[in-house]
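Module 6 notes. Inverse folding takes a fixed backbone as the condition and produces residue identities as the prediction. Think of it as a translation problem where the source language is geometry and the target language is the twenty amino acids. Below is one complete input and output pair. Work through it position by position during the lab.
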């Protein structure tokens, strides 16, 4: 097992946070609010709290993905660079999105909202993979 690239972990979490800001802002913010309605979010936390919690949770995901890449090893990843995207996209598609889908189904949340959120997680995890890919190429 190689060392975890902690700088890439931090940058990957920041990139996923940027994806979140764009995804739930200009891209799908209005569609999401149409689904939830003005009171659909219940008690709303201060925006900085939401941002901070989102970052911490994305940092946790990024750290675990960084550990996964360290276990695979730099030599294998250099020889098979598609693994960055296959592994992160696979985690999103095979674990995160189905778990979210089960939860959304039990809560009777609309398919539209589920697809918006599923798309976010796939793109966010792929952005984490892209960050590690670039970090692997640079260092």
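Target side of the pair, the amino acids:
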């Amino acid at each position: 097992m190689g060392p975890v690239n902690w700088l890439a972990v931090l940058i990957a979490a920041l990139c996923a946070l940027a994806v979140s800001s764009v995804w739930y802002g200009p891209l799908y913010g209005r569609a999401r609010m149409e689904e939830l309605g003005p009171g659909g979010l219940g008690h709303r936390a201060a925006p900085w709290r939401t941002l901070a919690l989102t970052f911490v949770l994305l940092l946790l995901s990024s750290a675990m993905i960084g550990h996964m890449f360290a276990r695979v090893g730099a030599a294998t990843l250099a020889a098979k660079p598609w693994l960055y995207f296959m592994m992160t996209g696979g985690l999103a598609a095979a674990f995160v999105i189905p778990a979210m889908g089960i939860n959304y189904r039990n809560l009777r949340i609309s398919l539209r909202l589920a697809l918006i959120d599923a798309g976010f997680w796939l793109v966010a995890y792929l952005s984490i993979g892209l960050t590690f890919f670039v970090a692997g190429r640079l260092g």
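Reference fact for the lab report: The chain has a mean pLDDT of 91.
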